[in-house]
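Below is how a single chain appears once it has passed through the pipeline. First comes the sequence as given, then the structure the pipeline wrote out for it. We keep one example in the README because the format questions we get most often are answered faster by looking than by reading.
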Amino acid sequence: MREFDFELALCAHLEREGHLVSRQLGGAVHGRRVLDTVVVEPGPEFEERAAITAERLPTAAIESDVGPGRARYWKDAFDCHPDRAERAVELAVERGFFERERRGGRTYVRQTTRYPDWVGEIVAIENKPDLGRPGDLESQLRTDVSLALADRVVLATASYVTGAHLNRIPDEVGVWRFDADSGTIDVRRKATPLPTDDTGVELLEEGPVRTDVRIVDSAEKARARRKLAERAYGKGWRSFDYPACDHCSPDSDGSPYCQWKDRAVRESDECGPDCGGYEAADPPAVDGDSLRAERTPWRADPDGRRRRQSGLDRFG
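Resulting structure:
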């Protein structure tokens, strides 16, 4: 089974169970690491987060000194490049997290609500349907465990899992054998909770005679976890384009199933005139947001927390 097909099938299965699922997200602090699948479990104030916006809230806005009390001059509230701050203000206003007003030719902003404690457990899943072709699997999983950005790390595979396989990956990593046809998960090994509140060690580059690492303190990890969770919340897992082909017939989960190839296909690299089964057509219309809202606590169209006060939102 191809990794893309496997990944979408697993995401759909987890979503049907009510989990908030996303895919292909940056899972590093200083290095380069892309997490195949990320599951974010709701924390104590999830409903407050869901009520603000269905989209990602900008990191700079969350980390700014803007609060829900007295409005502040926007340039005094950010500790970053002015261009980044200005973009964060625009997005935060657009998405209902900030409101703004003008005083004496200056823009002042405040939060519509305080940023909630909405993130519970974060699970990072590495998808490797064929363990006979592991690639950099061991190094990737060691990095995830030593950094401990996610609360748990899991390897998902379609292969038969042997003791030799288990011995080659860190003991902390859980192992799932996922059968896409039956939609069942056989937990071969439970994942050990990782010390997300402690200092982590991030593997940056590994060579035959030298390994470069960087220490990541708890504050850096907390910011990176919040950023990862926000991206997962806003992106979801249906972050692909549907092929403009008559053979594309999305399944009930919204996966881009191809009738000609009898599997899900990635539009960007295996669809088009070069494909023997290609028949030009409009891309199918799929309401992935409705599917996600039906199956998970995520809200597609929340009411928002924007207050209606004199002088506010006149320049939104």
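DSSP finds nine helices and 13 strands in the chain.

See the next section for the split statistics.
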